[in-house]
Amino acid sequence: MTRIAAVDCGTNSIRLLISDVTRTGNTPSGVSINEVTRRMEIVRLGQSVDATGELAAEAIVRTREALRNYVNIMKFENVEKVRMVATAAVRDAKNNQAFFNMTAELLGEVEPGVSAEVITGVEEAELSFLGAVQDLPAEAGPFCVIDLGGGSTEFIVSKKGEEILGAHSAAMGCVRITERMLPSDPPSETEVEIADDFVAERMSEVEKLVPINQARTVVGCAGTFTTLSALAQGLEQYDPEQIHGSVLRFDALRVLLGQVIATSAAARAQNPVVHPGRADVLGGGAVAVRGIMDMIERHSGVREFVISEKDILDGVIWKQAEAVSVLE
């Protein structure tokens, strides 16, 4: 058995997943993966990156504090191997070397020589797909997995274990939309219209590069989608087990999205299922989801999202597990 860890550092949050990997002849992949612990902290690493092109010093400090905590957890749990991926905020920042130096210093305490690595938008989409469809039946495919992050949103269409039919990373996310186009709280009608147009432009790119019409099941993952599921279900507290595998139907979801967009951040934060660090950008995420639904309706008969609590973190773990299996 090998204990491995994955860290995903996005525009809005930094997350940790620790799992045990065991070689076995009882699974198609030849490995068995058991989750040990999963953590998430909102650090807003992408604060103002869209406007300045640089990581803010205070954002790096927040991220360092969270990663310090994760490293302590990894050491306590006797993690042997770790991979940390960084996405849109770090990809876009001109001064990202300070971030890499910080991650190398801390992660080296777990596995010498390791630091964060920036992955491309396409690799981000592939890893998200691998994680998001783990618990879905293969016959429900082809799947379109949509990973809506803070700075970018990944789209990928494929069947389980088969060649990718199309993938694209769109330069839009809940933080980017909020900071760039929704400065008022709650936003004005004009601001929302501008944000809708921005999302529509990004969706025109997706339409050209990703065969949405081939998808039989559309999977939504990451914080905007999972929070919307919790709200739609009227949960009294955030419960991953009730959210994972839940279904959001477009017609009812449109009503909820309108309510979320029109509500202030302070009012959103009063709901116990909305993380305080997500409340101010949930409206931007809702605008993105609305535009995504419009695009899907133009190209597919699908009228619902299947929500997955599993995503890029789980994909990173699976990739590591394959490597461990080969080495053992």
TrEMBL record:
Gene3D superfamilies: 3.30.420.40, Exopolyphosphatase. Domain 2 (3.30.420.150). Pfam families: Ppx-GppA (PF02541). InterPro entries: ATPase_NBD, GppA/Ppx_hydrolase, Ppx_GppA_N. Residues 32-300 form the Ppx/GppA phosphatase N-terminal domain. It comes from the Bacteria. This is Ppx/GppA phosphatase family protein. It comes from Corynebacterium pseudodiphtheriticum. The lineage of its organism: Bacteria, Bacillati, Actinomycetota, Actinomycetes, Mycobacteriales.
